[in-house]
Amino acid sequence: MENLNAKMIQKTERPIKVIQFGEGNFLRAFVDYMIDVANEAGVFDGSIAIVKPISFGSLEMFEKQDNLYTVVLRGKENGQTVNDSRIVTSVSKVLDCKDDYEAYMGLAKLDTLRFVVSNTTEAGIVLDVNDNFDGLPTTYPGKLTKFLYERYKAFNGDVNKGLIILPVELIENNGGKLRECVLALCDAWKLPLTFKVWVQASCVFCSTLVDRIVTGYPRNEVASICEELGYQDNIVDVGEPFGLWVIESNKDISGELPLDKAGLPVVFTDNQKPYRERKVRVLNGAHTASVLAGYLYGLDIVRDCMHDEIMGKFIRQVVMEEIVPQVPLPIEEVKAFAASVFERFENPFIDHALLSISLNSVSKWKARVLPSFKDHVANKGELPRLITFSLAALFAFYSSEDLRNGVLIAKRADGTAYEIHDDAHVLEFFAANSGKEAGEFVKAALSNEAFWGEDLTAYEGMEETVTEWLALIKADAKDALLKVLGM
């Protein structure tokens, strides 16, 4: 079978408008995919220069395939199973910023360059005032600062040659934090004040929220996928159909990056907080509120939970009745988002393990579920039944005195042993308290302000309710679920 190459398609040469720090699966199946769609739709006319920001990894496969690759999006959308593929042609250049340093810095001098995209992991946006300005800086903010300085010099401080910077690292206010790092490095490196002013006035640092599950290279299925495609693709990239890119900025950039005009799921706003809250509460909150109960009930992956009569009902009810009403966006919009979440959970191509979602569940429950709990109490004057049950399920899941080498070992009803991974102080607490009488254990857990940021026993009826549900879950998780659902 022939390898994917430029002779197979008609590729239009376009000016480089985007420099992208990171060649990983997510950016390729999300940003590069979207730009390719926008190019085809005629609303954007630009290509991408990908820069590998770290020494790990190889670019050989890009070179062998003329910078072409296939994105396969599989899952459920609007009630239908989707399995679509697209050869992405938006990447025109791929280089290593260390090995191809001169070519990398040469990109800063391109008149057509307008955007910077990055995904250097959550640890990528960090400030190191001791980073090296001479040569190639180590950190991503260092690399970006020096790149911007090179551009500033190349265009003699032209106010129209600033760049629009779009980090997609999964940290809150990613654009603001990256801007702070760049400005701090301007001072640490004693760069000209006029350059710092240019960065502040001419560059737009956007904070973004991204959402798409990208599983990447389908190692176990690549042969059958390539057979279906009709060619060999050694960097094929697989993800789900759902996507969302919320871009927050203090300047409207939608005219320069009109991805939404190509029908793509991109939202331009001056406040992304409600969208972040919607994702955290509905998508992440649904996971955290359900997976521990689902695992104790005897299921192993998210899709099976959705298809199970009892767990499927629990997930849909906790989301629609207790989480959705608390999200500060128009209710119909939030309901539609919740419906898309359910479809994502039912994705027939992704086996999302409950145990993988269970990691660090205490801090996740605080961040993802507790806000909905508190809003429900404030708005309705009563405990949310299913959310409260989910906290009892967390206590049941974490119930074990067997702490070994930083891992808590527990067993579910069928005798299956499982590992609980969390911060050391969390695991030590449960190991020390799980052997106590149920009421005493629940009181200690609820009143642990280090877990929740407050004493949850202050909520009327909380201790008694959680203690009752905990006992029922430990006795028989299925019966407990049936009772809480009124089935």
**CATH class categorisation of the largest domain:** Alpha Beta
Q: What is the CATH superfamily label of the largest domain?
A: NAD(P)-binding Rossmann-like Domain
Hey, roughly how much beta strand do the residues contain? 15-25%
Helix content: 40-55%
Please give the alpha-carbon distance between the first and last residues. Answer: 55 Å
Largest sheet: 6 strands, parallel
The CATH topology of the largest domain corresponds to Rossmann fold
The outline comes out as globular
Broad structural category: alpha/beta
Radius of gyration of CA atoms, rounded to a whole number: 25 Å
Residue stretches low in confidence (pLDDT < 50, at least 5 long) are none
Number of domains: 2
Helical region count?
Answer: 21
Kindly report the average pLDDT value.
96
CATH architecture of the largest domain, by name, is 3-Layer(aba) Sandwich
Q: Give the number of DSSP strands.
A: 16
Spatial sequence of strands, sheet with the most strands: 5-2-1-6-7-8
Question: How are the secondary structure elements laid out?
Answer:
Blueprint: E1 16-21, H1 25-29, H2 31-41, E2 47-52, H3 60-64, E3 69-77, E4 80-88, E5 91-96, H4 101-107, E6 115-118, H5 140-154, E7 164-167, H6 174-188, H7 193-202, E8 204-205, E9 207-211, E10 214-216, H8 222-229, E11 237-239, E12 244-248, E13 266-269, H9 273-297, H10 302-307, H11 309-323, H12 331-345, H13 354-357, H14 361-368, H15 370-380, H16 385-397, E14 402-404, E15 407-411, E16 417-420, H17 424-433, H18 438-446, H19 449-452, H20 462-475, H21 477-485
Parallel strand pairs: 1-2, 1-6, 2-5, 3-11, 6-7, 7-8, 12-13
Antiparallel strand pairs: 3-4, 9-12, 10-11, 14-15, 15-16
Helix pairs in contact: 5-6, 9-11, 9-14, 9-16, 11-21, 16-20, 18-20, 20-21
